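Entry 14: structure prediction run for DUF6630 domain-containing protein. Input pasted below.
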Amino acid sequence: MCPMNADDPEFDPDDNFANHLQADADIDPEADDTPEALVWQLLLLINPGDEESALQQFAEYRDALAESAPDEVQPVWLLKDVIDWKAGFYVDGTDAVSFIDTITELAARWNLRIDWGVEDASDEDFLADADVPSLMAVAYDRLREYGYSLWTWNTANGPSGDEDMQAGWITLSSDDEAMQELAHALDIELRPGSDPFH
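Run finished. Output C-alpha cells:
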C-alpha cells in the first residue's frame, strides 16, 4: 500500500484505502501498511462517520510529520496535538474540569450527553473529590450504552514521559478489535477507559 498524500489532486477519501476499517480486518505491521496508512485508518476510527474531519486531521498530521526528524517520529505523539479537543483528549490526571469538558465536547459530535452521576458536573464539591481515572471509567460505561468505546493510551512511554497526563479517544464499540490491532501496529499501548494507566 502506497503512502497517501492528502494534497494529491487524485486523492479520494472514498477509495478503498480510506474505506472504514472493518473489525475483522487483519493488520500486519510487517506488510505493506505504512505508518501513514495506519494513522489514516486510526483517524477514520476516531472520527466515525466524519471522513472530512479525519482528512483535515490527516493533513495536519502530515505537516507535523514533515517537521519531525525521522528517527524521532512516534505517531501517537504527533497525533496528540492534531486531534486534541477534536477527536481526542490529553489532560492532566488531576484536572477533572478539563476532562469533563473535553469528553462532553467529543460526545457532542454524536449528540450524546454523559451522565456523570451527579445533577451538576460543575459542582465544586463533586469536582473536589473527582479524579480523571475515575471519571474516565464513568464515561466509558456511559458511552458503551450508546455503542461507543472510550480508549486511553499510555503517556509515560513518550519523549517527555508525561506520567501525570491522561490521553485517549472514542470509537464505535463495533470497531474495538480493529482499534486494538491498529494500536498494536502503531506501537501504541492502549487500554479501554475502564482500565486507565495511572
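Notes: The mean pLDDT is 85. Will compare against the previous run tomorrow.
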